[in-house]
Amino acid sequence: xxxxSKRTNYLSDSPTLQLNDRIxxxxxxxxxxxNLTVGEPNFYEPEQASEAAIEAINTHFTHYTNSSGILPxxxxxxxxxxxxxGLEYAPGQITVSTGGKQALYNTLAVLVNEGDxxxxxxPAWPSYEAQIRLVGGVPHFIQxxxxxxxxxxxxxxxxxxxxxxxxxxxxxxxxxTGATYSKGELEELAPIIEKHELIVISDEIYERLVxxxxxxxxxxxxxxxxxxxxxxxxxxxAFGMTGWRVGYSAAPKVIAKQIAAFQSQITASVSxxxxxxxxxxxLNFDSSHVDRLKFCQDSLITDIRQTExxxxxxxxxxxxxxxxxxxxxxxxxxxKIINSDLDFCSLLLDKVGLAITPGSFFNAPNxxxxxxxxxxxxxxxxxxxxxxxxxxxxx
Length: 395
Ligand SMILES: Cc1ncc(COP(=O)(O)O)c(C=O)c1O
Prior knowledge:
Layout: H1 6-9, H2 15-28, E1 34-35, H3 47-58, H4 71-85, E2 94-97, H5 99-111, E3 117-122, H6 126-134, E4 138-143, H7 154-160, E5 165-171, H8 183-195, E6 199-203, H9 223-228, E7 229-234, E8 247-250, H10 253-266, H11 272-281, H12 288-304, E9 320-321, E10 332-333, E11 336-337, H13 341-352, E12 354-355, E13 357-358, E14 368-371, H14 376-390
Parallel strand pairs: 1-12, 3-4, 3-5, 5-6, 6-7
Antiparallel strand pairs: 2-8, 7-8, 9-14, 10-11, 13-14
Helix pairs in contact: 3-11, 4-11, 5-6, 5-10, 12-14
The protein binds pyridoxal-5'-phosphate.
């Protein structure tokens, strides 16, 4: 009998994979399914990025690169961080990684010792908990809900801090809630973070997908926060480049050095071709994507509000809505009692061919996550199906 390492014993079959298998099997049976479970946009890399990648292949820019990333890409990242976020970094502080996911894992791996507590506001992207446990850390969840608009407050943060607390995980805009912290909200958290000498991992991967408010990085708020925050970002969400696998961390010098050393032993450089693509992509962000996402958000909100789902919070960023399903629980639809978010999502998929993600995947069983990073036509059709579910009409 093979015995696995204690750290990986925690891993189980991802519920997301199981859901995707179910969607795929329904599609194989010829069902017309609208899939709003996905965490990726429906747009693609900028043309300049694909051209640069093709050129990289044609000119054999296809060998190892510096394991932290090619200099021009890191320079472009520094320029972006300075101009758009007001954050000054040197290229040596940037590590280009295999997606934001690896940037995050690198950071946790170099900072966390067995038993260190990482404060994790939740509902949260499931990989945070998995990665924290994989490096031997202990997630300390702060359960958030609609009452604070899914945002951490000074009181909630203070109450969660113990002697073992080392890191605060912040994700703004958030997956799955879309909650985006204003400068004022971050300023209220800053003194507590400083008082308890916490390190902040600030996952800013949805930062460009913000509507009608300005994105602020917590690292800009004070000298302490600049020196104790690791900014995580990447190309997957804003540039539709999920498959290119490019992300990065921007960190204080000493931490960046350790991250670079760690990555050099694990994966070394990201694909040279992807790096060339990213180098151009970052110069060519298409803000019309944000306008289109807003249209989709508005359309879906209008439809959701005609159903029994409770959508009190309109998120300021990312591409997810996170309505509350309490009004639906214990009720009967199509002859079935809905006892959980899983029941609801399953029946919705069966009856009207609409796939959404149960909130329990994110520690929020009273909610569901609906991704609207699709064409407006698909979102309108999804809205129609959602309304038809509540009027009792099968698709
Ligand atoms: C909150 C959050 N952070 C990081 C990532 C990582 O993205 P990638 O590894 O594709 O850059 C994701 C992807 O779903 C995410 O939702």
